[in-house]
Amino acid sequence: MANPLHDGPADGDHATAVRPISNPEHPFAHPAEHEFAAFLDFYRIRWQYEPTSFPLRWEDGRVVEMFAPDFYLPEQDLYVELTTMKQSLVTRKNRKMRELRELYPDVNIVLIYRKNYHELLSRFGYGAVDITSLRPEQIERVLLSSAEIAGRVQELGREISRDHAGSSIVLVGVLKGITFFLADLARAISRPLALDYLSISHDAAEGRVHISKDLDLDIAGQHVLLVEDIVNTGVSMDFVLRTLRERNPASLRVCALLDKAERRLVPLDIDYVGFTIPNEFVVGYGLDYRELYRNLPFICVLKREVYEAKGRRRDAPFSSPG
Ligand code: IMP
Ligand code: MG
């Protein structure tokens, strides 16, 4: 049976709000399965519960033994069988796993213990949780999984390619939060393109924004797509747009991965929005807190204690906001 929140129809349209995630009531055979489903929900990893029964043994042409692994993770194409420390069960499960692998060599399956849940994550590219010395319990909430981000970036790439049919594009990224998004988006666009970057700084004293690293390219007469990680008040983007417009590009469009629309002070027309998110401070997939956490593969909200403790931490490379 499938998790309805994870397996709804794909949003092919412009539904960009982050889908809520909750743990639906599910007739699990065992509390450990319930716990594992909640773990997957937390990381927003799609799952199905016992979707497939594999015949293992036949007598007189009739199936007499089947094996239905506990979970299937479609984004990873992986079956997961949970196990406890009880040796009698482990032996039986190991036998079934061996037989399944012999009969169905193309099926990927793992047998995991409760203590290995997080190890499983590192197989999905979530290893950076350890690398950045962020403990899983310091994550308040995963807002967008790496698979959700990847899927949306592909959709944005198709839309942008369609809207720029017949022309080349100059992608302008605002450093540094854009690092991973721009790299992924550029590879999802099927038009000839050039990449360029600019940096902006806010001088607190004057309450102004200025360009601290300008473009290398002359964008006059070019079709420009400004790419931003996140738009809050819109002050930064409004400034950048005004600056770029003065240089007479043939067209100027805007793409933002995240939009905290609630915080908007300056009205902006954003042509392509990855996700509209609530008004919370987020990190990961390029977004930082004091230069940390950019390398998390997902986008999440951290627990308050992480920010409060940061000044005392020796592994924080920089103490001023970046
Ligand atoms: P705005 O000028 O108020 O729209 O601020 C946008 C800029 O603030 C972004 O380009 C980010 O650098 C930064 N920012 C805003 N919200 C977040 C967040 O939740 N996490 C990390 N950086 C953020
Ligand atoms: Mg930024």
Could you characterize the architecture of this molecule?
This protein is an alpha/beta fold and 322 residues long. The chain folds into two domains: 109 residues, Endonuclease, Chain A; 165 residues, 3-Layer(aba) Sandwich (Rossmann fold), CATH 3.40.50. Helix content is 26%, strand content 26%. It has eight helices and 14 strands. The longest helix is centred in the middle third of the chain and has 18 residues. The chain binds inosinic acid and magnesium ion. Magnesium ion binds next to loops.
**In the CATH hierarchy, what is the architecture of the largest domain at level 2?**
3-Layer(aba) Sandwich
The helix tally amounts to 8
Ligand identities: inosinic acid, magnesium ion
Number of structurally distinct domains: 2
User: In CATH's first tier, which class of the largest domain applies?
Assistant: Alpha Beta
**First and last CA, distance:** 45 Å
Q: What is the H/E string?
A: HEEEEEHEHHEHEHEEEHEEEH
**Strand neighbour order, sheet with most strands:** 10-9-8-11-12-13
Tell me the number of strands. 14
Query: Helix- and strand-based class?
Result: alpha/beta
Question: How would the global form be characterised?
Answer: elongated
Do you know the CATH topology of the largest domain?
Rossmann fold
Low-confidence stretches: 1-15
Our Rg estimate from Cα atoms comes to 24 Å
The averaged pLDDT comes out at: 87
Query: How can the largest sheet be summarized?
Result: 6 strands, mixed
Strand residues, percent: 25-35%
- Percentage of helical residues? 25-40%
Structure summary:
The protein is an alpha/beta fold and 322 residues long.
